[in-house]
Structures
1.
Amino acid sequence: MLFDNKGKKYLEAMSGLWCTSLGYNNQELIDAASQQLSKLSYSHMFGGKTHQVGIDLAEKISDMVPTKDAKVFFGNSGSDANDTNIKLLRYYFNAIGKPQKYKIIVRERSYHGVTVASASLTGLPVNHTNFDLPFSALGILRTDATQYYHCSHVGELEVERLLFMRIYSASPCAQSIFSRLILISLLHFIGS
Ligand SMILES: Cc1ncc(COP(=O)(O)O)c(C=O)c1O
């Protein structure tokens, strides 16, 4: 529960921006942060440097993800992480001699952050208007949002979008024809 400056109560069901799921004033977190601050309050990881807490956390995360020997690259925010993702992709494909592989397909109405690169990935006009974002330099292509309520095409059934949105990305027309064909086959299959 949170209170605003007029004492109005809010049920904070979003957990901040999805990052306070352990709650506010969590004593365990306060103790851990305060112990760490008294031990080593700051140290960077720039230019190949590191520190024990960073190593321990990276190893823990690496063990948790379903990739063998995963490497961990820390960022300061979600936006920063998405910028880094773009840089890593560019770097990788340049390194293996495929610089032409740089396009990124993003969804309309998606949210990926607010820095220059991550706002370019984001599919919301409010994050684009008047910012002169470098969409084409970043190789950004857009496809439909998954939502049916806001983004369905005329005549599209909700089940069509639910079933097929994740399977393919194509023009609205191709989507509609393709999904109808699959739906018809599915209905035949269920009916037979
Ligand atoms: C899916 C997603 N990507 C990126 C971000 C951006 O993260 P940040 O606000 O830490 O820059 C958010 C933030 O809410 C997000 O929900």
Note: The mean pLDDT is 87.
2.
Amino acid sequence: MLKIFLILLIFFSLGSLHPFVVINDLSPEEIWTKTEFVMSEHVGYSGYINVNQTMDANLFYTFWESLDENPNAPVLLWLQGGPGCSSLWGLFKENGPLLIQSDGSLLTNPWTWNNNYAILYIDNPVGAGYSYVTNPKGYVTSESQMSQDLYTALKVFFSKYTKYSTNDFYVFGESYAGKYVPAICYRIHEDGNQLNLKGFGIGDGFSDPIPQVNYFADYSYSTGLIDEKERIDIKLLEADLKLQIENQEWDNCLENFLQILHQISEFTGGINYYDIRRYQPYDSQPITKFLNSQSVKDTLGANADWEDCSTNVQDYLKIDFCKSVKPLVDVLIQSGYKALFYSGQFDLIVNYMGSSDFIEQINWSGKQNWIDSDRIVWKNNDEVVGYVKNYQNLFHIFINKAGHMSPMDQPQNTLDMVSRFINNKPFS
Ligand SMILES: *[C@@H]1O[C@H](CO)[C@@H](O)[C@H](O)[C@H]1NC(C)=O
Ligand SMILES: *[C@@H]1O[C@H](CO)[C@@H](O)[C@H](O)[C@H]1NC(C)=O
């Protein structure tokens, strides 16, 4: 039982932002906090869920009810990758209702996934984004620990936001969340699916390293970024890395993975391997400045410094980096959960080729039919925007003119994809 105390009511302007209204609502157990706020006329909720009291490990969440006010709207969880990157990047740069512009101002996102879905963004694992942990032993070093903390958070969340506890639930994530998404879905499944999980979506996700580290050379060569001689050099590095993974030598796996990308970067004069149309890196300054301003922290009830990606979290997860979650994906797909994998055309780091190879090897009863199924042309507003391979509950979608972060590059088409996937609407 919660009593709502009106602790704080602040109006202020920050640059070009609209006024914020803050209402704090703290539970007596201190296991969680809830702040209701208004940001640029959008109501949101945020706070911390203590997932391990011994370690003082706290996951930060922010929750946005569906803009169409449908009480039965499916709830989507969004998880960023890294490892160690904040899911608020996805909120404010990709699919959330408000996007941070390069000048630091907020812009309403007409293609937000929030139009018809409630979205829960969690800074995961502890130590990422605004999430924090006091005892260093609380940092996670495996997908099993990650999903234990995250599952605790989800159970607390749905026990507090009870009106959402019977809605359909989907887990979405990007990049290294290709590990997190199957790991949390598997834990939910294993515990009798008490959260009404219907399916999951993984964008440019790293889930199964052996096939996925095998295509840096081929992708770069086929797009003309490297020549045949350079291709042979990269292939040798890939073969070394594959051997290490087969021998379960986890310690230097991340370094060697990054070494391949550095080599490609050198050959290409610094290509952005998240989007080969770019040479410059993404600018994280505006969002970093925004989320570290005291006024925004007060609004969101955040009490940690924010960085887009935590090297600390990444260091603790280094030994997890090259481990595969394919066995979990196998079980989830065989069990009938809807699975959406999508790949941006211009993403090198987790490219379409590697993901296709991994998906083709998923061990389920539809495997051969999957391989034999014809890919179809996906049109949105009469324009070809991608290609869809589907058999039963498994989808792999190629997104035209997108890099690693499809919702940022192709917001309208990515929203169309998510809507069709959730509503079981055909793509042609
Ligand atoms: C808290 O974290 C420690 C260290 O990882 C772990 O041994 C323990 O099981 C965790 N407790 C809970 C309740 O998850
Ligand atoms: C595929 O799944 C079946 C059924 O779960 C299992 O018996 C078999 O060992 C799996 N094969 C591989 C290669 O994982």
Note: Residues 212-268 form one domain.
